[in-house]
Design brief:
Helix content is 38%, strand content 17%. A six-stranded parallel sheet has the order 2-1-3-4-6-5, sandwiched between helices. The chain has a six-stranded parallel sheet with strand order 9-8-7-10-11-12, sandwiched between helices. A six-stranded parallel sheet has the order 14-13-15-16-18-17, sandwiched between helices. α3 runs parallel beside α4. It is built from 21 helices and 18 strands.
Length: 512
């Protein structure tokens, strides 16, 4: 018997190394979900489609194999959009499969009918028919990686397959490294800026480059850990995190920025368009006023070809810029102190995921990462709710590693439903909830605009009690020391655990 279209799709995905399918079922997508089950792909039921997309995104980022999520038509597909858009601006490989009204009924059936190809077009690299599932996987992984939408009409899922996988080799350009090398050769104070285009596979080459050049470096949040942040040449995280003015001063102190995989999508300001930048990347990021001198190709190979002499900064200037990224926590319920205490007890090679809010800006700048692929946050889109789904994906990819999610009380409210899956799978994720009873990032913004706090303060629930109701061990800390002890205990016990800790948001006013 010939396979159905859903079965052919599932076999293609399994052959490409896909192990998990994240999503919510619906009558129009169940044939595809069942076909994946029979192909050996495990379906994981999430509480919301956005969580499914975030899990697929992070799993794709970790493994390099595009993560796959699915949703039914109508509201299932629209719920998926935020997570897909997040992968688009975080440059993460993903394939998002949605059901669609049957082809024979589309012209007449208006119930739940939406033009899904048009809906997903602005937030994906492409939207393709189900018969091109193999091409979708290739396209999702090609530089810059990103999501691809696949539409599966409900009647076509169970029809006999009329396609077979056909992979196409991408054409490769021969990069010209000379313009980059020439400008670097005459620089006196180069600054290395490492961005999300650099992958863990490039880490060895990047670290060797820094050692040869002896010039300081910055990283963007999405690539924290690719070079150890305990290096004496580390000058902080650019940009848009806390103490951003100090980071921009460091950039201005350089006479040239060597950008490796730098993607302006991570920046909330346009300083990069006014900076002298040379770029080594896997894809061109030139757009608008940003027109760097660039060499595009395999990042690791291009770096190894660079013939460079040491270009150290003057010792006093380097010391001054290093001192600029140091901050002392305030007394009391300091979020910065909480970050320091968590770092002190968390394993060096453990994986931390971070949600969106004021704590994200502080974590992005002050959490020290030492190994590639150990820090995950949403930055291009900055989608609130990312932290816990990301932790689920990280734990699935690395079952033996410690995984911790750091979230705010607002983001925790959005993602309580993910506790069901964490409990079901017994994932030993530690969730630390910063409770400041406010959407503090917006509160700070209102204050700077002279607006009284409005629409941002709320009364959070007892998250520890809520976690217990989901069957997850928890602790409601009275202060930072108590929270540290609880996290240390949870890490040793290797069980799902939620710790909530009260935080005073006033420190953010000086940091953000």
């Amino acid at each position: 018997m010939m396979p159905t279209n859903a079965e052919a799709m599932a076999k293609t995905l399994a052959d490409r190394g896909v192990e998990y399918l994240f999503g919510l079922p619906g009558g129009e997508i169940v044939a595809f979900i069942d076909a994946c089950r029979r192909a050996g792909i495990r379906f994981l039921l999430t509480g919301h489609e956005a969580s499914a997309a975030w899990m697929a995104q992070v799993l794709g980022q970790i493994t390099g194999v595009p993560g796959v999520c699915c949703a039914t038509l109508g509201p299932g597909a629209t719920n998926l959009v935020t997570g897909v858009a997040n992968a688009y601006l975080d440059r993460a490989p993903m394939v998002a499969v949605t059901a669609q009204i049957s082809e024979k009924s589309y012209a007449t059936m208006t119930h739940q009918r939406l033009a899904l190809d048009e809906l997903f077009a602005p937030v994906t690299k492409a939207t393709v028919p189900f018969a091109e599932i193999d091409r979708a996987m290739d396209l999702a992984a090609a530089p810059r990686p990103g999501p691809v939408h696949v539409s599966l009409p409900s009647d076509m899922a169970t029809q006999e397959a009329a396609f077979s996988g056909s992979r196409q080799e991408r054409s490769r350009n021969t990069p010209d490294l000379a313009p980059v090398a020439e400008r670097l050769k005459i620089s006196q104070r180069p600054l290395v800026l490492i961005g999300l285009g650099a992958t863990p596979a490039d880490a060895v080459a990047i670290r060797a480059l820094i050692d040869r050049l002896q010039a300081p470096f910055l990283v963007t949040p999405k690539v924290k850990g690719i070079a150890g942040e305990d290096s004496p040449l580390f000058l902080g995280v650019a940009s848009g995190m806390t103490i951003d003015r100090d980071i921009l001063d460091t950039i201005e102190a350089a006479d040239l920025v060597l950008a490796i995989g730098f993607d302006p999508v991570e920046c909330d300001k346009t300083w990069f368009a006014k900076t002298k930048i040379i770029s080594i990347d896997s894809a061109s990021m030139a757009e608008g006023d940003y027109q760097p001198v660039e060499a595009v190709g395999d990042i690791g190979a291009l770096i190894e070809q660079l013939d460079i002499e040491p270009r150290p900064w003057p010792a006093d200037l380097l010391a001054k810029r290093r001192a600029a990224i140091v901050r002392a926590p305030v007394e009391g319920l300091s979020p910065l102190r909480m970050i320091e205490e968590l770092r002190a007890v968390f394993p060096r090679d453990g994986i931390v995921t971070c949600d969106v809010g004021s704590h994200k800006l502080a974590m992005g700048q002050f959490w020290r990462s030492y190994e590639p692929g150990t820090f995950f946050m949403s930055n291009g889109l900055s989608g609130m709710g990312f932290g816990i789904p990301a932790a689920v994906a990280a734990q699935l990819a690395h079952p033996s590693k410690h995984v911790m999610a750091v979230v705010g009380d607002g983001g925790m409210l959005m993602m309580l439903h993910d506790l069901v899956l964490i409990r079901e799978l017994g994932l030993p994720i530690v969730i630390v909830v910063f409770v400041d009873r406010s959407l503090s990032l917006i509160r700070v913004s209102e204050s700077r605009k002279g607006i009284e706090p409005y629409g941002v303060d709320f009364c959070p629930p007892d998250f520890a009690a809520a976690a217990a109701a989901f069957g997850i061990a928890s602790h409601r800390a009275k202060d930072i020391a108590d929270a540290r002890n609880a996290v240390e205990r949870a890490l040793s016990e290797r069980i799902p655990f939620l710790v909530e800790v009260p935080i005073d948001h006033r420190e953010y006013y000086d940091l953000v």
